[in-house]
Specification:
The protein has 77 residues and is of the alpha+beta class. The chain has one domain. It is built from 2 helices and 2 strands, in the order H-E-E-H. Strand 1 and strand 2 form a beta hairpin. It is flat, with a radius of gyration of 20 Å. The model has no long low-confidence stretch (mean pLDDT 87).
Length: 77
């Protein structure tokens, strides 16, 4: 197995342990709303939002780098 696969497997196992240990219901208060949901769902939702935010930021940074490189090559020519 590659190191990348091992790291992904370890992270997945740690996440699974975290979820299984937090099955209780919790109350989430957002402004005027109050939601009662399992802590597991909340953990997964926050995790997915974090991954999504990271992906969007990475995509924007990558697009900016490509744009700057294209402008630099255009100015060079």
């Amino acid at each position: 197995m590659k190191a990348k696969h091992i790291i992904i497997l370890i992270i997945f196992l740690l996440l699974l342990i975290l979820i299984l240990q937090n099955l209780g219901v919790t109350t989430l208060k957002i402004f005027f709303w109050e939601l009662r949901l399992p802590l597991t769902i909340l953990i997964l939702a926050v995790l997915l939002l974090g991954f999504l935010a990271g992906y969007i930021i990475q995509s924007l940074q990558s697009a900016n780098k490509k744009k700057k490189m294209a402008e630099a090559q255009k100015n060079k020519a």
